[in-house]
Design a protein that fits this description.
The complex is a heterodimer of chains A (304) and B (400). Chain A has helices at 6-15, 22-34, 48-59, 74-77, 83-96, 101-108, 118-123, 142-154, 185-189, 201-211, 217-230, 241-253, 261-271, 275-281, 284-297; strands at residues 38-42, 62-67, 79-81, 114-116, 130-135, 156-159, 163-166, 172-177, 192-196. Chain A is α/β, with parallel strands linked by helices. Chain A has 2 domains: 6-71 and 128-158 and 166-196, 3-Layer(aba) Sandwich (Rossmann fold); 201-293. In chain A, the strands form 3 sheets. Chain A has a 5-stranded parallel β-sheet. Chain A is elongated, with a radius of gyration of 25 Å. Chain B is of the alpha/beta class. Chain B has helices at 3-22, 29-39, 47-58, 65-75, 81-91, 106-113, 121-134, 151-162, 187-196, 230-243, 260-263, 268-278, 288-298, 300-303, 325-335, 356-361, 377-385, 390-399, and strands at residues 171-178, 184-185, 206-212, 216-221, 247-252, 256-258, 309-313, 338-343, 367-370. In chain B, helix 2 runs antiparallel to helix 3, helix 8 crosses helix 10 (230-243) and helix 13 (288-298) packs parallel to helix 15. Chain B is globular and about 75 Å long. Classes of the chains: A alpha/beta (304), B alpha/beta (400).
């Protein structure tokens, strides 16, 4: 099932509609072959989450997703005891009479009272193998990171009242971060690290062709050339690939066949999400970038 | 591949790891083992695959990537490639060549490639002078010497810092800890307790939400006009960084330097030495607007999460006539929970905020804390811990 070469990994990602460069394909291949978690860092909208989804489909595994947030704790991330049912069970045992403390304890902390949350579910030996996506780890706080260490190193989870749960098949673990906070070195050390950069023009055109199939070749080339130039500008938040796809779709809905300064100005909000950035680009700057993008994508005549 | 080749490759990877370590990358033995394993899984004929395999196992941070790439180029050099590159350069007339600029980290790497030996003291001095002369002459670059601190002084500094109470200093998290008088019921602990008593609930365990100080980000001006306070400010920054979690520290003059990692060193002298090496623009001019804008763009999203408080230490005297300062301050103010400005240059009570820089900054800070005489850490801590009245802030705003 697992791809045996880098090329096979790239093909696997491509079959799920993900256009990966060699570096990413190599990293993913190594993560799969070495059984190590994959830590993907990069600007928002560069397709980090998508990798996990494509891997799940490609490897025919179930995707278990944990979205991180500040204050994420054990009961939301890993497991929770069903307290109401436990209390009920205690009452029932009392009513039946003759409870001895030892057997009550083992009854109360049985598997049926344990509610699995994403982390436990991902390594549950009774369930099929999984791809575990721990999304936007930077949003969680440090205590949560520390808790992850055991899971990432040994793919096991220790529940004090119950025992240790081991994964039967190692899950494929993908962690992503937008760098709103530096993730601790201890996590980084346990993972294979890859910085997901903005794609180059050729790869971005390929992505666009897959993700927004209705967009004409001219428009798609111009859109990509424009966005690539926009990323060199001095902006607070640069547009990601997700924005490129949205923008191309938006222009298509407006029946644009090629870039025009007026249409760019009207739809700039799809691409840039901060007012300062929009104010800076709208108007003359946008017109200049459109001209440049058109010049770069115009079909070359020989001898010119 | 036969065993001899494998052995050679393994030895080369070991040398390479050593080179990276000497150049300052934290490459541990486990990283090296992972790299060795990865080599068996990729196509050794493909340079790109080998490079990625080594990088993904040995580099754990984006900012180390450039250094790694440089090191890779230097170490795994194709003996024939240099000649080819030269030929191509000659053929293209050299016009494709980008402007001369040594890539970051190359100097450190060149040093790491050299056999390790302690240079004689004279040679080291010469090297330093050379380094100063080669970098842009617009900036006045110099390293700072800090007086040694006695053990007693360090202890005193620590005890002073403990007294520091910043505004908004406790933030309730969503985490809970057991507390017999806490307002929330902890069912898990209650049931566990009851089992010890045969299933009967006698006590209800309770918990309380954990409170902790928010992340603190310090932006400290180290330009010429602030240089007399550099010593005391650094002591302050070091003590704060070692006393609390989540402190990020940046120094700015004409550039912006992140010294968070350097300051973490427990020994202040070592930390200061590391800082003075890392920061090239002691006692130069100030471009406050530019520095803050750079901070907004490069760092704000990375360090201002989770309700951070920003402490800005500057006199507000800007070389560029406050160009772009108001906009940058406005953005900074909107990205953090609270922006506290500490101005250590106000030496008399009748101060009027006349300078353009100060006028541009005042509307965008939550608290303005002037220090009239900054002679000791104690004054600094006292000033920062003093509650500030709303009327006081209004007074400054109207004066501006």
């Amino acid at each position: 099932m697992q791809p045996s070469t880098v090329a096979a990994t790239a093909a696997l990602l491509a079959s799920g509609g993900y256009v990966a460069d060699t570096a990413l394909a190599t990293t993913v291949h190594l993560a799969l072959a070495m059984g190590r978690p994959l830590f993907l860092e990069g600007e928002p909208g560069t397709g980090k989450t998508e990798i996990a989804k494509v891997l799940a489909t490609g490897l025919d595994r179930r995707l278990v997703r944990l979205q991180c947030y500040d204050g994420l704790d054990l009961s939301a991330a890993a497991y929770e005891w069903d307290h109401a049912r436990q209390l009920m069970a205690i009452r029932m045992a009392e009513a039946a009479g003759g409870t001895d403390r030892q057997s009550l304890a083992s009854d109360i902390y049985g598997r049926e009272f344990l509610q699995a949350r994403p982390l436990l579910s991902a390594i549950d030996p009774d369930l099929p193998p999984s791809v575990l996506l721990i999304d936007e780890l930077d949003r969680a706080d440090e205590p949560f990171e520390a808790f992850l260490l055991e899971l990432l190193a040994d793919f096991q989870l220790t529940i004090p009242e119950y025992g240790t749960v081991h994964a039967r098949t190692k899950p494929v673990v993908v962690l992503t971060s937008n760098r709103t906070r530096e993730v601790h070195d201890a996590i980084r050390r346990r993972c294979l690290y890859h910085w997901v950069d903005y794609p180059d023009a050729r790869r971005e055109r390929e992505i666009l062709a897959r993700k927004a199939p209705g967009v004409s070749a001219t428009l798609s080339a111009e859109v990509v050339a424009f966005v690539q130039r926009l990323r060199k500008e001095d902006l607070f938040k640069l547009p990601g690939v997700a924005e490129t796809i949205d923008w191309a779709a938006a222009l298509m809905h407006l029946d644009a066949h090629e870039l025009a300064p007026a249409a760019v100005d009207e739809t700039l909000g799809v691409l840039l999400k901060y007012q300062d950035d929009i104010a800076k680009i709208r108007g003359a700057e946008a017109a200049r970038l459109v001209t440049e993008a058109k010049a770069a994508t115009a079909p070359r005549t020989p001898f010119d | 591949m036969d065993a001899a080749d494998t052995g050679k490759l393994a030895a080369n990877i070991m040398h390479f790891a050593r080179l990276l370590r000497r150049a300052g990358l934290p490459v541990g033995p486990s990283d090296m083992l992972a790299a060795q394993r990865a080599m068996r899984l990729v196509d050794l004929g493909s340079r790109a695959q080998v490079r990625t395999a080594l990088r993904t196992t040995m580099v754990h941070r984006h900012e180390h990537q450039d250094l790694f790439d440089q090191a890779f180029l230097m170490f795994w050099r194709d003996p024939t490639a240099a000649a080819t590159a030269k030929a191509i350069e000659l053929l293209s007339g050299g016009k494709e060549k980008p402007p001369e600029r040594t890539p970051p980290g190359s100097r450190r790497l060149a040093e790491a490639m050299e056999p390790r030996r302690e240079p004689p003291p004279d040679a080291r001095r010469e090297e330093k002078i050379e380094a100063v002369l080669t970098v842009s002459d617009r900036e006045r670059l110099q390293t700072m010497d800090f007086e040694a601190m006695s053990a007693a002084e360090i202890a005193l500094a620590k005890s002073e810092i403990r007294k520091l109470v910043l505004p908004l200093d406790l933030r309730r998290t969503r985490r809970r800890r057991p507390d017999p008088r806490g307002p929330h019921i902890d069912l898990r602990a209650t049931i566990r307790q009851s089992l010890r008593q045969g299933g009967e609930i006698f006590d209800i365990a309770s918990s309380r939400k954990v409170e902790r100080p928010p992340p603190l980000v310090v932006l400290c001006d180290i330009s010429g006009s602030m240089s007399r306070y550099a010593q005391i400010l650094l002591h302050f920054l070091h003590a704060v960084a070692n006393d609390r979690d989540h402190v990020s520290t940046f120094l700015f003059g004409t550039r912006l330097s992140n010294i968070t990692r350097q300051l973490r060193h427990r020994d202040p002298e070592v930390a200061f030495q590391m800082v003075s090496h890392a920061v090239p623009d002691w006692s130069g001019g100030t471009r406050i607007g530019e520095a803050i804008e750079l901070f907004n763009r490069e760092w704000a999203r990375r360090v201002l999460g989770q309700g951070a408080v920003v402490l800005l230490v500057t006199d507000g005297l800007d070389r560029e006539g406050a160009k772009g300062l108001a906009e940058a301050m406005d953005r900074l103010h909107r990205s953090c929970t609270r922006l506290v400005w500490l101005n250590p240059l106000l030496r008399w009570e009748g101060f009027q905020p006349r300078s353009q820089g100060i006028r541009a900054m005042l509307p965008h800070v939550d608290e303005f804390r002037p220090v009239h005489n900054l002679a000791s850490l104690r004054d600094l801590v006292a000033t920062l811990s003093r509650p500030l009245s709303r009327a006081g802030m209004e007074k400054w705003r109207t004066a501006a």
